[in-house]
Amino acid sequence: MLIRPSGERAVLVEVDTLAQTHALATALGAASDPRILDVVPAARTVLVVVDTTAHLADVAARVRTLDLTAVEAAPAGDPVRIAVDYDGTDLADVAEATGLTEAEVVARHTAPEYIVDFIGFAPGFGYLSGLDPALHLPRLPTPRPSVPAGSVAIAADRTAVYPRASPGGWRLLGRTDAALFDVTAEPPALLRAGMRVRFEVAG
Amino acid sequence: MSERALTVLEAGGLTLVEDLGRPGFAALGVSRSGAADRGALIVANRLLGNEDGAAALEVAMGGLALRAESDVLLALTGASAPTTVDGRTAPPQRVLAVAAGSVVRLGVPRWGLRTYVAVAGGLAVPAVLGSRSTDVLSGLGPAPVRAGDVLPVGRASIAMATIDAGPAPPSGPTFMLDAMPGPRRDWFTEEAWRVLFARRYRVTDVGDRVGVRLRGAPLGRSRLTELPSEAVVAGSVQVPPDGQPLIFGPDHPVTGGYPVIAVLTESARDAAGQLRPGQELRFRHHVSPVA
């Protein structure tokens, strides 16, 4: 664990693995320390933001003492299930590029249990790992100016759902009605780093 | 009409409702947002006896015109926009008693970018995730203010104002921004670290509440590997591959993909909220609180 400075009210904690970012975020969440305002896991780091500069050194010292190997990173319970209509704009192109049929693309997308690596790009947008290597394709050469809300998409070794309409360069396999981000819901985002996710064909 | 409200007659360049933002949602992809110059917002609220975080208008480059629908107290802080009430010049950084029906107009500030117009009782627009701030990146919070909007005003507190005049804003040709080593200081050459504090940078035309791009001596990296995305704070000085730094503002993306060489102090971050295109600035080295 390496603690890097990030201004007067935050530190960026660098760890060795993605699983450790989830373990650290879980441990800090469980601590319910009122001095900590935000804990933001990413690929190899966790940003810890405190309320005032006076608390930073003490919180950083506490982070240093956490034993990440002792923390259960994956949340208990069932994975989040997301029902998908596989009628995406790029489904046929993905089938052609991978040498699979459209049905095989859907089968390979619904087979794995995915992990939310981290949230970024937009509110509620989770980067999910665990995509079948047969479906690894680069982003579109030119991003679309607008991808519809609920689009289920793939790019490189990840899959994701667009919570709201936004520009985007991922390949669209389908669409879900699931609310990925809703300011009136508690919590507002369906996904959180470290969660497990399964996609299902909508019935 | 006795309704407590302000009617927007002209919205100016860009006028937004801002408070002190929505902390606690960054892990869900939502930045804190809030006033770009928090210090100026807080001073305006203290002049009026409001809570520090009461919502106010953040007016970029002036041009706002408002009509009071009831007798209200206003305070203007931040960028010093020449202000009139019914055509009469009003003093800056002071409380203005504005009678129902009176019109307040802001000209273009001589210094800085953002003027805060606070009202006793605060703006009572609906909150989203606990905040009335507009986040221009995520689209959360109220829509930008437009002519014709009627902004509800909350009930004024009976608290005494905790100050009776705001500080004079800084002035001078060059902004000095205090900065401390950022999380990826070690990804840059010693020369880049020296250059950052030795040379002047200029604010380009590319800037908003998400970030402000600078132009000046390029900052070279000692590590050229790709940085996995990591969370950043407002005030981070990020360096894309062209070596030209940018300063993240309150509506920054939660994560960034380029290394952060330095991070502004909290007060320098507020000062950066007053940078306008063409402004010249220098970074000044500040010792980090955590080694």
From TrEMBL, chain A:
<keyword id="KW-0547">Nucleotide-binding</keyword>
<dbReference type="InterPro" id="IPR029000">
    <property type="entry name" value="Cyclophilin-like_dom_sf"/>
</dbReference>
<dbReference type="Pfam" id="PF02682">
    <property type="entry name" value="CT_C_D"/>
</dbReference>
<feature type="domain" description="Carboxyltransferase">
    <location>
        <begin position="1"/>
        <end position="191"/>
    </location>
</feature>
<dbReference type="InterPro" id="IPR010016">
    <property type="entry name" value="PxpB"/>
</dbReference>
<keyword id="KW-0067">ATP-binding</keyword>
<dbReference type="GO" id="GO:0017168">
    <property type="term" value="F:5-oxoprolinase (ATP-hydrolyzing) activity"/>
</dbReference>
<protein>
    <submittedName>
        <fullName>5-oxoprolinase subunit PxpB</fullName>
        <ecNumber>3.5.2.9</ecNumber>
    </submittedName>
</protein>
<dbReference type="InterPro" id="IPR003833">
    <property type="entry name" value="CT_C_D"/>
</dbReference>
<keyword id="KW-0378">Hydrolase</keyword>
